[in-house]
Amino acid sequence: MSRVAIAMSGGVDSTVTACKLLDAGHECVGMTMVMDQCPATAREAEAAARVCEGLGFAHVSLPLTDAFEHHVVGPFVGSYRQGLTPNPCIECNRTLKFGLLWERARELGCDAIATGHYARVTYEPDGTYALREARCPDKDQSYVLYPVPQEVLAHAVFPLGDVSSKDEVRAYARERGLACASKSDSVDICFVPDGDYVGFIERHTGEPLTPGRIVDAEGNVVGTHNGQERFTIGQRKGLGVQGPGRSYVVSKSVETGDILVGADEELYASEWYVERALWPQGELEGPQRVEVVNCYHGFRHAATVEAVDKSRLLVRADEPVRALAPGQSCVAYDGDRVVVGGIISASEH
Which residues are catalytic? Predict the structure, then answer.
């Protein structure tokens, strides 16, 4: 029997996670991160505390406002200012849920950490721990967990990784008489619940976005914009560009403030670099055949990955890939196992 810290929100996934661990005979401690930037987390902490009381184990709220600002919100805003398209949930998992929360859990005498993520961890014959896709591909969250290091994977537990569907989770909750059985899923970016990330950036910095030009491949000015942060690679809507054909955002220049637009065929790349590469089971010894995913719940693309150095790799796709967005994460899979992940950088067409 283990003493397990469970990251809890009071929702159905984390509550069912707790029930499954209790059923397996583990001693549990509920933990909820509370951040001022996400008012919903205070309500989640109250809901989680009620769930824990009902299930008969302790609950701890962990104030992480300053850490959340430093590790997640600040970099999120900074990345957009740099012309990138970040995924803050990945950084939150790396630094907070499987970082500071795990540190606090160990202080409380826990020897494992569990979350309601849909993913799996397996112990391999070579003595390492592998991060793998969930049995339910539609709910799989291994993409956002790739930064979890080997030393934490060794203590990570994902009870929902083996379920067949979200309906199975809700059915389990109804059978247990849990009030959260029909509770809706949480939003993707907790500190931007309305989805207006541009407005959030303006409020956070206290500065308006900088207007600029929209130019084509020949350098002709074909329009203007009111902030490059409003656009991502591959975007067509909202450009206001007049021309004979459809125009898409091909690239952005933070230095000049220009947004380059072009035809759809200009969006494809066969090679690109990935920075800040993290290898859950250790760096590759040479090129490896994989399938890569370039955005959350994105399509898989057959490719070869090769380490340039310990933190940088080159991806060569078998077929050109559309609309790679710098700042998003590229995660490589060998079957259902996560091989490596990192941040998409420059692309070569």
Answer: 92, 190
